[in-house]
């Protein structure tokens, strides 16, 4: 049940708060290479932010034989898992989450990462004391750019679309937020350019969490407080 008196910020995590976008890119590239799919890293990078099902559709075609998809996902997960102990938050990520909490805003991690990956991401951030709720891929029937994970984040946190801002790093994040009329702040630290995020509908674009923190009072988050 939503609490109309509370406001909050939904955060994507991969590439937005934790520096993982290129780790996912390399892991998918190697997983695909092992299965004899030669896909340029630039194309893979542009797909990061989608769920693995849509990413593979996007890269390999929706009409393909999907029998090998599970092996591709397992290979990606094994390769990406080698980085878990070295995951690092992006500049200002921890401080941004704490600043939002200090403003009385609910801090929600709206990620579609698998549950085991979420554990590693939360460990890298190390700010569980200010996080209100966290989603995972198990909470969404359909992955981004569908808005399912944001709907789940709202339901779990008791917030409404009218009283939140979403922060993400990919055009898929912006698209998902747009389907619920949630303002989305874009960050370029995941490797997507300022013009593209703005063109997708981001209400503002900053370099990274630290830059958003510096501009917090006048940002879309600042107006929530």
Automatic annotation (TrEMBL):
Chain ranges passing through the membrane: none
NCBIfam families: HAD-SF-IA-v3
Protein name per its UniProtKB record: Haloacid dehalogenase superfamily, subfamily IA, variant 3 with third motif having DD or ED/haloacid dehalogenase superfamily, subfamily IA, variant 1 with third motif having Dx(3-4)D or Dx(3-4)E
Upper taxonomic lineage: Bacteria, Bacillati, Actinomycetota, Actinomycetes, Micromonosporales
């Amino acid at each position: 049940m939503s609490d109309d008196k509370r406001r909050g910020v939904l955060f994507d995590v991969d590439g937005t708060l934790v520096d993982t976008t290129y780790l996912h890119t390399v892991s998918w590239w190697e997983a695909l290479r092992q299965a004899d799919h030669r896909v340029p890293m630039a194309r893979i990078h542009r797909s990061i932010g989608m769920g693995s099902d849509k990413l593979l559709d996007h890269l390999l075609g929706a009409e393909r034989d999907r029998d090998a998809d599970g092996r591709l996902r397992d290979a990606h997960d094994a390769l990406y898992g080698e980085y878990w102990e070295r995951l690092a938050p992006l500049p200002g990520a921890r401080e941004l989450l704490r600043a939002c909490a200090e403003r009385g805003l609910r801090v929600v991690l709206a990620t579609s990462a698998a549950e085991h990956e979420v554990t590693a991401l939360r460990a890298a951030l190390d700010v569980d004391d200010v996080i209100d709720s966290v989603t995972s891929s198990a909470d969404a029937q359909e992955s981004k750019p569908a808005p399912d994970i944001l709907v789940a984040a709202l339901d779990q946190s008791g917030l409404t679309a009218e009283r939140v801002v979403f922060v993400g790093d990919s055009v898929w994040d912006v698209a998902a937020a747009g389907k619920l009329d949630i303002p989305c702040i874009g960050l370029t630290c995941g490797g997507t350019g300022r013009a593209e995020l703005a063109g997708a509908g981001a209400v503002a674009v900053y370099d990274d969490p630290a830059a958003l923190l510096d501009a917090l009072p006048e940002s879309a988050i600042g107006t929530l407080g």
